[in-house]
Prior knowledge:
Elements: H1 12-15, E1 22-26, E2 48-52, E3 56-65, E4 79-86, E5 91-96, E6 109-112, E7 122-125
Parallel strand pairs: 5-7
Antiparallel strand pairs: 1-2, 3-4, 3-6, 4-5, 6-7
Amino acid sequence: MSDADIDQDDSYWGRVRNLGFALPRCAACGRFHFYPRPACPFCGSADIAPARASGRGTIYSYSVVHRAPSPAFAADVPYTVAIVATDEGPHLMTRLVGIAPDHVRIGLAVQVRPGAPGRPPLFEPTTMEAP
Length: 131
C-alpha cells in the first residue's frame, strides 16, 4: 500500500504525526485510551487530547498471516499481526516487524519502530526473548 492510498491528514496518525507516537489522553482522569472517541471511556469527560506515549509494550496476542489478503501483500507473507498492550494501558492492533514469525511469543517486549510519520505504527521487539 502506498502513501497515496492513505490520506494522512485525515487519519488519526496523520493528525498526531508531529507528536511522534501519541495516544488519546483524558485531561480529567489522566488515563490513556485507544481508539480515539469523543468522550473518555473511563470518566465520560470530553476533555481529550493526544499525548505523547512511550511507544513500549508487550505482545498480548498475535496471528501469523500465511495467505495474502490481496496482491498488495503477496511479497510480505508470512507476516505477523499483533495486539500490543502498551505500557500506558491501551491495546493496539499492529504489524510486528524485525522478527521471524516463529520467534514471536506472548509477552514479548516491543517498541514502536521509527518509520513514516503519519502512518499507523509498526512495532518491533526490544529483545529477542519474551520475559
